[in-house]
Write a structure and sequence with these properties.
This protein has 15 helices and 14 strands. It is of the alpha/beta class and 407 residues long. The chain folds into two domains: 123 residues, Aspartate Aminotransferase, domain 1 (Alpha-Beta Complex), CATH 3.90.1150; 221 residues, Aspartate Aminotransferase, domain 2 (3-Layer(aba) Sandwich). The radius of gyration is 22 Å and the shape is globular. The structure holds pyridoxal-5'-phosphate. The site of pyridoxal-5'-phosphate (PLP) has 14 residues, from α5.
Length: 407
């Protein structure tokens, strides 16, 4: 008997996938995504049996794979098992959760912190819970998807400003602030597709003038910015209390999985007791909490890691620019895009580079705005200058071979 077609098979995502796969097949372009790799996602990656120099990992400090972190995670499993089998509110609370949260709060210099099982879910649930239809949320138009989904869930009025355009942020608040109960400004500490950083002092001045609330998403900046990796506040000499909501993830520099919010006692107590994504979700697995805690301890005692990351990133950026590559507004901290602007060329270049032993992935719409596709290079403290030279030289040669403009 013929299987009945489900209405879900007509979902726009299914149709889009079929169209893209058909196009790839027609043009003979291999799909660069979901390729299986083995082992640790470090500066070398074993992908489909071949060892590549890797630029597709946000293992910024080289801590994922560190034996001390693996040991801490295993110890937590032996002590607590693989799951706390309940929400923290009821019987899921373990000492390791509070130890991690206290360490995060201390690193920020704020009252308290709370951890969630996913970084993405942290933004969705926290924004959806804290804000509502009477509020205004003003955000950089390159905001991460988790921020956009959280705003949507909140029902707040949403107004974007063009990337890093503080005059526009100011104008939006001047025009709309009075009509709303709360006004929230959201920026990211380091933009994950662009590698640039906001001028937080200016944002704080605007926030204060408009009696607004400020949230900074430090998914990519915590561990990466500042002399000891404590993020954008350390880098720019900001009083941590000038930011109302510090948000971050455990999946990047901290070699684990999950998200956190750090801030005042009132904010954190409120989230811990009422935020649905915390309250109605299982407590973070002890192994993830222990891994993040150990990673934070190591990051803070081995500050040469962040120094190396920053110098490697600067080297990569300067060399890319000297070779005539378009790195957009990248500032040389952990992330450098090489702008290609054309989807097909970006995919083909990525595939060519993988064939030559260099792993860098194409970023296209909807991860970035239409017509701004790029190859994204994540840097790590463990990259050597020789690795960077090889990647950039191969990229330039491949671009020239494909007649893609370099300078
Ligand atoms: C700015 C930003 N916020 C939140 C997240 C979600 O974090 P996670 O991947 O840990 O769920 C990401 C993920 O890359 C991100 O880039």
């Amino acid at each position: 008997m013929k299987k009945r077609q489900s209405p879900l098979s007509d979902h726009r995502g299914v149709r889009d996938l079929k169209r893209l796969r058909g196009l790839g097949k027609m043009l003979g372009i291999a799909d660069p995504y979901f390729r299986s790799s083995a082992g640790v996602n470090g500066v070398r990656l074993n992908k489909e049996g071949r060892e590549l120099i890797n630029f597709s990992s946000y293992n910024y400090l080289g801590l994922a794979g560190d034996p001390r972190i693996n040991a801490a995670a295993k110890e937590a499993i032996d002590c607590y098992s693989t799951s706390v089998s309940a929400s923290r509110l009821v019987s899921g609370e373990r000492a390791i959760h509070r130890e991690l949260e206290a360490a995060i709060a201390k690193a920020y210099g704020v009252d308290d912190a709370v951890s969630f099982v996913s970084g993405h879910a942290t933004n969705v649930s926290m924004l959806g819970y804290l804000f509502n239809q009477r509020d205004l949320i003003v955000h950089d138009w390159l905001a991460h998807n988790s921020i956009m989904e959280g705003i949507r869930l909140s029902g707040a009025k949403r107004l974007p400003f063009t990337h890093q355009n503080w005059d526009q942020l100011d104008q939006i608040l001047t025009k709309h602030r009075k009509k709303s109960q709360n006004a929230l400004i959201i920026v990211e500490g380091l933009y994950s597709m662009d590698g640039d950083i906001p001028d937080l002092k200016t944002v704080i001045e605007i926030k204060n003038r408009h009696n607004a609330i400020l949230m900074v998403d430090e998914a990519h900046s915590f561990g990466v910015l500042g002399a000891t990796g404590r993020g954008i506040a350390e880098q720019q000499g900001i009083d941590p209390d000038d930011v109302d909501i510090w948000m971050g993830t455990l999946s990047k520099s901290l070699a684990s999985c999950g998200g956190y919010v750090a801030g005042s006692t009132d904010l954190i107590d409120n989230l811990r007791h009422w935020c649905p994504g915390f309250l109605f979700s299982v407590g973070m697995p002890p192994s993830s909490a222990a891994a993040a805690l150990k990673a934070l301890e190591i990051a803070q005692s081995e500050t040469d890691r962040v120094t190396r990351l920053q110098s490697v990133s600067r080297y990569f950026l300067q060399k890319a620019q000297a070779l005539g590559l378009d790195t957009s507004g990248a500032e040389g901290f952990g992330i450098v895009p090489v702008m290609i602007y054309d989807d097909r060329q970006a995919v083909e270049l990525s595939n060519d580079l993988v064939a030559q032993g260099i792993n860098t992935l194409p970023m296209m719409y909807p991860s970035v705005p239409q017509g701004t596709s790029r190859l994204r290079f994540f840097l790590s403290a463990d990259h050597t200058e020789a690795m960077l030279d090889e990647a950039l030289d191969r990229l330039v040669d491949t671009m020239r071979a494909r007649k893609i403009k370099v300078a």
